[in-house]
Design goal:
four-stranded antiparallel sheet, 93 residues, PH-domain like, alpha+beta, four-stranded mixed sheet
Length: 93
Amino acid sequence: MNKITLGLPPHCHKVSCDGRMIKIKDSGNNKWAFPLSGTENAVVEEVNDETGLLTIHGKDKILATLEMPIRFCEVGRGWLLDKLPKKKRVKLK
């Protein structure tokens, strides 16, 4: 399982990928989980420099929105793009 921690304590997002699911847990114990098989049309938006938001859109809904310092958003965006299916992922520019 691949894991990454984004953000600084006490506001961290723990993100993991086991090859089938991406799971995200924030400091408030909010959890998101979505299957990689459901990410055919997933879009990982460019990082919003003003708000520090990183948003992952699915086919017809938002899969997850993470708020954290800008430098962690960039790392998280790259990590998520690496985990999404290479043939199916879409980068929004």
